[in-house]
Specification:
The protein is built from five helices and two strands; from the N terminus they run H-E-H-H-E-H-H. The protein has a two-stranded parallel sheet. The chain has 110 residues and is mainly alpha-helical. Helix 1 packs across helix 3 and helix 2 crosses helix 3. It has one domain: Arc Repressor Mutant, subunit A, CATH 1.10.10.10.
Amino acid sequence: MSAISRSASALDQAFLRVIQQIPPGRVMSYGAVARAAGLPRHARHVGVALKRLPDEQAVPWWRVVNGEGRISPRGLDGSDDLQRVLLEAEAVEFDGAGRIDLRRFAWLPD
């Protein structure tokens, strides 16, 4: 993975460093990313950091889902479908309601 952009805020960089560590086939919730970055109660800012992420940035944004195991819209046309395709390509499974079983697929750093 490439280095995180120096133009990203320190807060964004903290979240993006955690997200870069999520292995293929695993996901983290926005809240779990915030806690792992040492910034609990900043789950919404994780979403903001991902929304600001430049397209060329090599950060696996698709591995971050909401606390219910659902894809949250990024506000980009087709990003929801793309996120699901990318996760399914990594063998992440969705149930009939479009949720990921976080007990099975969630990843927490050591």
